[in-house]
Each structure stands twice: as C-alpha cells, then as structure tokens.
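Example S7 (structure tokens).
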C-alpha cells in the first residue's frame, strides 16, 4: 500500500527536530545517511500524515524509532501503540531501538537492522547483545536466510549481468590460513557508482586471533575491531596513515577475531583498457582502484551486492603460491616472521620477464 504524504503543517516541526536531534539519533543517522545498509536510502524526521518518524526507508517501507526514557511511561506507551497500529495499517513496518542500545551496542543495532531490511520478517525485535554480538536466533536467521532476489549489474562495457554467485559464509568460517590460500584466484566483485569491477585476488595476508601481535585484535575488543569478533564473511575496512584504506574479510568462528587483508589484484581484461596496469599491488592501491572506503566497513560479502567474492574457475596451482612474511608489521616481533602472506607470481612483463610482487 502506498505511503501517504506527511501533513505540510508539520514541516516547521520536522525542521526543528532535524536541527535538534538527540545524541542517539545523531549516531544512528551517521550510519544510515551513507547508504551503508544494503545501499538503501533513509530519511530522517520523516512525516507520514499526522505523524513524524525518526527515520524512514521508503524502499522497504520501514520506520525506525529511537526511544528515550520518555517512552517507558504507560501514557507514552499507549500513544506509541496507537500510532504504531495506524502506521502498520498503511503497510509500514516499525523497528524500535532504545537510546541505550544505540549508545552501547551500535554495531549490534546495525547488524539487527541489516538483517530486518534484507528480509520480510515482521517479528518483534529480538534482544540485542552487547558489543555488536548477535544472539543465536539472529545468527541462525543469517545462516538460513534465502539469497536476495537476483539483481542486475552494469559492467564497464555496458553489458547487463543479472546473476551472481557469492561465496557462502561456510567458506570464510574456517581456519584463516586455509581460507587465505583458497582466496587466491577467486574473483572480487565490486559494484561502484557506474560499473561492476571484477578482479582476480592474487595477494593476501592472514591475521589470526588475539595472540597474533600483528593483528589489530591483539589489543583487545574495541569499537574499531568489533567486526572481527562477529560472523565470518563481513568486511573490515580501516584507514592507515590517515589516507589509505585497507580491505579485509573476517574469518573463523564468532568471538575469535581473525581476518584476511586483500593486498593485490589482477585486473581482468574486460574492466580496463590495455594501458591500465595488469596488476595492482598494495592494499591502499587496491582500495583506490575499487573505490572502497570506510562506508564499505561491515558489508556482508555473502549477500552478493556492493562487494562480494566469487569462484569463477580461474586455475591456480598450489605450486604457484608463495608464502612470505607479512609487510609493515615489524613491531610484532616474532609474529612478523610468520609466513602468512600468500601471493601468486606477477604476470610476465611486456619484454617477457617476470616481475616480483611489490609491497
């Protein structure tokens, strides 16, 4: 059922509410406004007839409410119930979070919201655990959720590609060193603003658990590393030196922080003219080429949208794989000597010679 427009008389009130958002609303809006959840667009302080909802997703017909202490009173709860019944009669789903959940568990709120927006579920909001962890019910839904409807993607050549085959979560939920080797030769798919980039993964580094001094999680569970403790298959994107982004894929079981850094790609022929470098080395260059930044942090690669990895049958011999020390982690002591960087040899140069993988 189409959503009815808001009352024009509410426009001044909506403007005041936007100018005076609560701190919890500001935190959540900072995530919603950058299309981080399935590339969906959201509106803040959106009017629907005589009501104003905190956030609204028109593509899913979902209203998101952030409730403060005032909503704990019986009188306010009665008003909320009446308002919710009316909005539901318009075909609008309501999702509620408390201020405390946004302040203390923003990652969990975003994960829960991502799951709800990817499905048609109208079940009551499940309880959220602290520090971005999902409870068992939500984890099971993620694992059992059917794939989304087939979407069409536009390649750089202008061709429509209307199928995808992302690697399943089970692929990533294995020992990190094994996953790292198996990623070589897989194809990284990245949907940018104007085309679909397909690149062969040729260089990766493994970061394994809290004891690995080169791993960010060795300093404990923080807001920055929280994603590493969650389900496998999600992206972990961070900024180094204030200018370079690094793309990682989370691995292993939940609560065991591990990830794989994508260090190098081989450009597939249908993406760029021959003058473009055949191989892109270095995590910063990889992210610049793919147009990946912090807005790509926390994406589910098993979803098959925005960024994911496929098996396209590109041949890789185990004899080709080089095992080398990781780069730029001298501070990690003996852990820096681990041969946990895995790469494929660079393609032949125009003169017929071979070039070594660069840092």
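Recovered sequence:
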């Amino acid at each position: 059922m189409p959503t009815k427009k808001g009352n024009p008389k509410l426009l001044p009130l909506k403007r005041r509410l936007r100018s005076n958002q609560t701190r919890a609303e500001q935190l959540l809006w900072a995530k919603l406004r950058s299309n981080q959840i399935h590339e969906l667009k959201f509106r803040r302080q959106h009017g629907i007839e005589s009501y104003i909802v905190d956030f609204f997703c028109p593509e899913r017909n979902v209203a998101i409410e952030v409730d403060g202490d005032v909503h704990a009173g019986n009188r306010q709860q009665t008003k909320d119930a009446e308002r919710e019944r009316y909005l539901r009669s318009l075909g609008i789903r309501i999702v509620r979070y408390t201020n405390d959940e946004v302040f203390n568990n923003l990652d969990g709120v975003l994960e829960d919201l991502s799951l709800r927006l990817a499905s048609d579920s109208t079940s009551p909001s499940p309880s959220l655990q602290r520090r971005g962890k999902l409870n068992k019910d939500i984890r099971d839904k993620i694992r059992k959720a059917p794939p989304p409807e087939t979407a069409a993607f536009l390649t750089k050549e202008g061709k429509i590609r209307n199928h995808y085959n992302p690697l399943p979560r089970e692929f990533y939920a294995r020992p990190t060193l094994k996953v790292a080797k198996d990623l070589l030769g897989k194809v990284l798919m990245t949907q940018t603003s104007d085309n679909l980039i397909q690149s062969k993964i040729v260089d990766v580094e493994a970061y394994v658990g809290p004891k690995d001094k080169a791993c960010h999680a060795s300093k404990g569970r923080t807001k920055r590393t929280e994603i590493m403790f969650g389900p496998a298959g999600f992206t972990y994107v961070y900024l180094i030196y204030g200018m370079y982004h690094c793309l990682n894929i989370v691995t292993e079981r939940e609560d065991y922080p591990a990830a794989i850094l994508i260090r190098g790609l081989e450009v597939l022929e249908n993406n760029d003219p021959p003058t473009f470098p055949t191989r892109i080395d270095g995590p910063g260059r990889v992210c610049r080429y793919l147009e990946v930044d912090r807005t790509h942090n926390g994406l589910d690669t098993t979803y098959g949208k925005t960024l994911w990895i496929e098996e396209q049958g590109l041949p890789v011999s185990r004899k080709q794989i080089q095992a080398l020390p990781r780069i730029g982690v001298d501070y990690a002591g003996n852990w820096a000597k681990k041969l946990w960087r895995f790469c494929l040899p660079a393609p032949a140069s125009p003169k017929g010679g071979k070039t070594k993988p660069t840092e």
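Notes on this example. The longest strand covers residues 196-208.
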